[in-house]
Design a protein that fits this description.
The chain is of the alpha+beta class. The protein is built from four helices and three strands, in the order E-E-H-E-H-H-H. It is 42% helix and 22% strand.
Amino acid sequence: MHYFVYILLLSNKQLYTGFTANLKERLLQHQNEKVKSTIHRRPLKLIHYEVYLKESDARRREKFLKTTEGKRLLKMQIRDLLNEIQTDHQGKDAGVV
C-alpha cells in the first residue's frame, strides 16, 4: 500500500497540505465539497505530491510540512512552479502565496 502527502493550491493562493492512502478519492472529496477546510476555497489544483511506503513516514512528512520551517522548505522546493503560476495569473489576480 502507498501513502501520499499532497499539496493543493487553493483559490485564495494559499497552499493546503494533506495526507491520504487514496489520492484520487481524496481529491474527489475536495472537489465535491466534502472537506470542510477547503470547501470555500475552490477551485483548487493539485500541484505536488509525495509517495511513501510507510504510513508513519507520510504522517511525519505531513506534520513537518505544516510547520513554519516545512512551509518555507516546500515553497523553496516548488518555487519555479509557484512563479510559473504567478506569471500565468498576472493581470488576473494578485501574486501567489
